[in-house]
Amino acid sequence: MSMPSPFRNAAFELARPDLSVLIPFYRESPLDLLKTLSSRDPHAIEIILLDDGSGRPDITAEVTAFIQTSPLACELITLTENEGRSRGRNRLTTAARGETFLFLDSDMLPDDAGFLDRWLSVAHEKPAVVFGGFSLLQAPRDAKFAVHRRMAGHGDCLPASERLKQPEKYVFTSNLLVRRDVFDFEGFDPNFTGWGWEDVEWAMRVAARYGVGHIDNTATHMGLDTAETLARKYEQSAANFARVIAKHPDVVSQYPSYKVARLLKKLPLRSLLRTTARSLAMMPLPAAMRARLLRLYRAALYAEVV
To answer: pTM here?
Structure first.
């Protein structure tokens, strides 16, 4: 794959980063996130961005313009072809200079001004892996996102005390701190394609060897999806779910999504159930009901691979 030289700002050569903030993006600008990132010690932090084959010169121009004036060390790597979620994040770590990585999704926004400094303090303690959590505090409240807001609010936006009960399950690359030597030993599996499960599978491997920590240093997930988009993502994720089952059957068998999928597998007319659940989830019903129908649809998809 041909790749132009990385674009770096003046602060890049001066910085001696302890913490490398790694941000992949694809066809959506990370500019809003970049504007929120600041630190009391800018020389201790660098930001490495990866444009994973967007082919959008307008995004390149605005990100480059921001980097030029940022007091934080910044580097932009631009790929000509999309490599995908796992390969892209693996590539980001090879460009990082810090001893600790902070993976941030480009559609996240820190929930307070101390976000990076708090992570820098945690990094100095040299933990293996820590997830900071995410919230919906700043997320859009448009009606079209009501189902996703309902699902994320009840299943994902949990305090650290709750996440620690199943630490490997609640690990997402949206706000994830990883020590360099840990990632050198356990990178993301590049055979995961499409959407879903590559971060949870990685956490299963890491948790068994190093353990996984959780704190409350949240960022808002701004990129809520419509019900239609969620359904398409679930359709992409079934093959990845099958891959996780094959690699970690004892862990996955404890998950509710697996247990429901196994029950549905025994039912006749599964395809009719799947189609009906999807159709009803797209109708103007209460958000709570549509969320339950989407979960049923996801389980019916997974029933084909369990």
So the answer is: 0.90
Largest CA distance in the chain: 65
State the Rg of the chain over Cα: 20
CB–CB of 221/107 below 8 Å?
Answer: yes
Helices 270-281 and 287-302: angle between axes, nearest 10 degrees = 150
**Token pair belonging to 282:** 């797209």
Distance from C-alpha of 62 to C-alpha of 54, rounded to nearest angstrom = 14
Mean pLDDT in runs of 10 for the chain (306 residues)? 75 94 94 94 95 91 94 94 84 95 96 96 96 95 95 91 91 94 91 84 91 96 95 94 93 91 92 96 96 96 95
Write down how long the chain is. 306
Domains of the chain: 7-224 (3.90.550.10), 225-306 (no CATH)
